[in-house]
Amino acid sequence: MQLAARVGKVSPSITLAIAAKAKAMKAEGIDVCSFSAGEPDFDTPAHIKDAAKQALDQGKTKYGPAAGEPKLRSAIAKALKTIYNLDYQPENVIVTNGGKHSLFNLMLALIESGDEVIIPAPYWLSYPEMVTLAGGTSVIVQTTAANEYKITPEQLTQAITPHTKLFVLNSPSNPTGAVYTRAEIRALAEVVVKHDLLVVSDEIYAKILYDGVEHLSIGAVGSEIFSRTIVSSGFAKSYSMTGWRVGYIAGPVELIKAMSIIQGHSTSNVCTFAQYGAIAALASSQDCVAAMLSAFAQRRTVMFERLGAIPGLICPKPYGAFYLFVDISSTGMKSIDFCNALLASHQVAAIPGIAFGADQCVRLSYATDMTSIEKGMDRLHKFVSSL
Ligand SMILES: *Cc1c(COP(=O)(O)O)cnc(C)c1O
Description:
This protein is of the alpha/beta class. 42% of the residues lie in helices and 14% in strands. It is globular, with a radius of gyration of 21 Å.
């Protein structure tokens, strides 16, 4: 079969491959500690599930508007205003089939052949692939552990060419857990405005923060940056709703209209009753988020401390999301070899950094129970000592 050339330009997800291998080993009865999860390990809070069940019973089972249920679009606009000081109306919001779909639709609506998209590495693995699928060119900027894997305004400036259209910012970051400070966000905003670029701010982990750090949405810095900002987010990570597939984009009306047209000819509306679960997530108490956060916080402390005790591994302290991004350069191993050996010899699953554009690193997720963390870190320590 002659497949379209675009298929050959993207690679399958490495994160899924390792997770699948770990799962297969578990199914064989092998005691695997998995640090590979890219999703919270909690069930969706009961009141959110109840709202979706109720919507089902009320017959919310039909097609809805492609851009989302009006009630959900207003609830999202209101939340962005009250929590992050972003002045959006419901028409500035489109509901999508998850944050991943948000970004894919955005690239389709915005990027074409000849356009460059600046992506700091380590990056969430789908960004470059989406740019490629849209026909654009990714410009990858390498950041360093010494700078907590954050792009500097100087690096951003240097990467800009007359073809640059979009800058992808992800704070808190997957895979690094890095959170940009207010001053750092302001400095990046200045560069974006000065060069008249657009910025997409992937804020899917905005509620998952530790040690009292705050999230500043880049669009809230001022009116000039606001008009150049696109916010991408969703319900998956903060409300443990990964399988529900509800995300959103907020941005200029012209862009939201374009994305609605694309959505109208591709996926149409997001599952109607799932959107009612999302409405409940925003409208109800946020105690469920706080409870998950406190579990994550404890695990982060333990995992980070245990990691610090392993000679040779380097890891900047993460302030958000639920990952540690560990530099394994001292082992002299490539990330895939390291992860394969770790899984085969010590039954610990981690994700190779090459998937995120950083072959000298591996990603450890603490979206798993404390017992597995203790046991898995013991094994990781033994593995590294054995090298
Ligand atoms: C998980 C994730 C998303 C999107 O997740 P969905 O399940 O599609 O909502 C987007 N960006 C980053 C960085 C993520 O980790």
